[in-house]
Structure prediction request, 605 residues.
Amino acid sequence: MSALREDFKEILRLVRPNARVLDVGCGEGELLELLTQEKAVDGQGLEISPSGVAACLAKGIAAVQGDGDRDLDHFPTQAFDYAILSKTLQQMREPRHVLSELLRIADRAIVSVPNFGHWRVRWALLTQGRMPETKALPEPWWSTPNIHLCTLRDLTTLCDELGFRIEACAAVSRGQPARSIDPSRAIENWRAETALFLLTRERPRPPAPKPAVTGDLFD
Amino acid sequence: MSDTAVPIPAIETNGGTLRLPADAPLRLDSGATLAPLEVAYKTYGRLNATRSNAVLVCHALTGDQHAASTHPITGKPGWWSRVIGPGLPLDPDRYFIICTNVIGGCMGSTGPSSIDPATGKPYGLTFPVITIADMVRAQAMLLDALEIETLFAVVGGSMGGMQVLQWAADYPHRLHSAICIAAAARHSAQNIAFHEVGRQAIMADPDWRGGAYDAHGVRPEKGLAVARMAAHITYLSEAALQRKFGRELQRDGLSWGFDAPDFQVESYLRYQGASFVDRFDANSYLYITRALDYFDLAASHGGVLANAFRKARDVRFCVLSFSSDWLYSTGESRDIVRALNAAGCRASFVEIETDKGHDAIFLDEPVLDSALRGFFESQASRRGLP
Prediction:
């Protein structure tokens, strides 16, 4: 258990026993296996790579081969208690749509993202003038799967726009215990290498603002 | 095989034929009834005390109940001996495995070559048209007779997979888990088109005699062989054909004629056709392909496939497809999975990477084995099976 990923430890802490859990981008099912053993969850994985899904099945974990960008639409509303998206949001073509789908499908979403506002990233960009390569973001720009990087502040802003409440937030760094943080504090946007959020729907989505009374633009 | 080969451990094999009397008819989708009804079946392993370890294995178009036992006509091992056996994913030491011959078939279950009690002659074309749902209904009647209320699993590939889907739609409360391999929720225009080629080949054979060939003491072997040849191509991928045969010749040089096959692939197909007619009945081929063509699970559920699975939320599903299968492609399996998800069912799905085409169901595919093993294993622990 000592080799447990720090973000997994934090997720394990957040998930209630016997919950229904959807893990989007579940890989070889390590997290679901852990949650099944420790929290007796009813788990389901979604994974794009066939070898990942085959590995899940061999472990006895229910997993569907599919694409988080496309296949979430086919899950019914509120089918799960938790939808987990671990370090994958930045690889999605439509992160905003994926986020809102997570909280349509599940009552709670657990989302972790590498923080592009981390000081190492800022420092690398400032001093070298090149796309940063850090522990959390190791690939060069031309081969990275991370096409929609964001900062901690970007994500809190988006959650606000989508009407999501941040129930809990933790900064996670490799080899260090997760640290509970207030994501609205500017300092955390410098310090958090990876940020992990527990999100719920704060309020029903606000109705689209009504267009101003139609009339002559030059009224 | 050497003389020192380790003997294959014996599997406890049983089976027989369920005979239902004329006053217990099978009601068919067409509105007709079938009585008396016979359902031939084989079993492997032993039913446990709580009757909770039964697995129904559903066969494909030209398969039969001999899933893991030597075929009485061909002498070959059962069609799924790779999956059913000691130490294999479906272990008879653990599960009670049942395989029935579908109705309409020709290996002991009531079909067009059975005797019509009204005339004392084989049914031939007076046999009623049957559907996949009718096949499943007959299987359920067999389970009733065996006093098996619920199945630990129903599993099948190709047409067997369609029966699995039909089971989930019609008897969800009798299922614990369901495994659908290389199948589709409906027959596509292309599927129907290939079947029509096969049927026309049979009916064009002068020995078919309007389906009454038995009475004339002949069999439409040429037509049935051609039907099998055309169908067999659809079971293989282009890559597999290329790998196996390429343009290799049967002998040195071309024959510049049509008597003997020039290419190895021709010879292979002729062999497939010729050996098929020894074990299959032409009218059964017509009826079973018809049943497949009529299959459209969404259409029978208000046009929405998810509706077929709404009552199956407690059933755990596993859907598998093969990357090079163009008969029932991965897209078809994906549609099934999406419908299951939409219905709120728990489903696993994986596309297995292989160049062996549709036939991969019956071939050496380690990922198929490990997926089946993992799925059965997890379901067995959920079901509380040792």
Remarks:
- Residues 1-5 of chain B have pLDDT under 50 and may be disordered.
- The radius of gyration of chain B is 21 Å.
- The CA atoms of residues 163 and 173 of chain B lie 16 Å apart.
